[in-house]
């Protein structure tokens, strides 16, 4: 069984850095509702975010985040909403356990990263917040480090 807190790329510096960015820093920043912890992980110029709305057909996908600013606003909204909820378990552990990022394709200074969510978090009221989607991140080596230049998110998991 995999340790959800352990970076699965200990001897691959590029993949190690990408995992740290998209799993460790992303989760911790989201839980703190603190964009400043991840703001340097993005390439602002040309950033694009697609919301697949958990639908298989690209005909339903939307250009929800045509700029990094638009994505930042939604990210902060979701993070603040999450922070106001009450959970029956440790949210950080639940999110890490739900998250899998083990497939990173690198060609030169570009990377296609597959991050999947499959699980949920038990709430204090007895309900369960289901986390079941996947995101394709487009990353590139920018100013000496790996950064996110865009994504297609909220894809169904599994597809089809």
Which secondary-structure class do the elements indicate?
Answer: alpha+beta
Shape label:
globular
Helix content: 25-40%
Overall average residue pLDDT: 97
The fraction of residues assigned to DSSP E strands is: 35-45%
Low-confidence stretches: none
CATH architecture name: Roll
Helix-strand pattern: HEEHHEEEE
Q: What count of helical segments does DSSP give?
A: 3
In total, the number of strands is: 6
What topology, given as strand order, has the largest sheet? Answer: 2-1-6-5-4-3
Total of domains = 1
Summarize the structure.
With 160 residues, this protein is α+β, with helices and mostly antiparallel strands. The chain has helices at 13-32, 68-83, 91-98, and strands at residues 48-51, 62-65, 99-107, 110-122, 128-142, 145-155.
Your description of this structure?
This protein has 160 residues and is α+β, with helices and mostly antiparallel strands. The chain has one domain (13-33, 44-156): Nuclear Transport Factor 2, Chain: A (Roll), CATH 3.10.450. It is 28% helix and 35% strand. The chain has helices spanning 13-32, 68-83, 91-98, and strands spanning 48-51, 62-65, 99-107, 110-122, 128-142, 145-155. A six-stranded mixed beta sheet has the order 2-1-6-5-4-3. The mean pLDDT is 97.
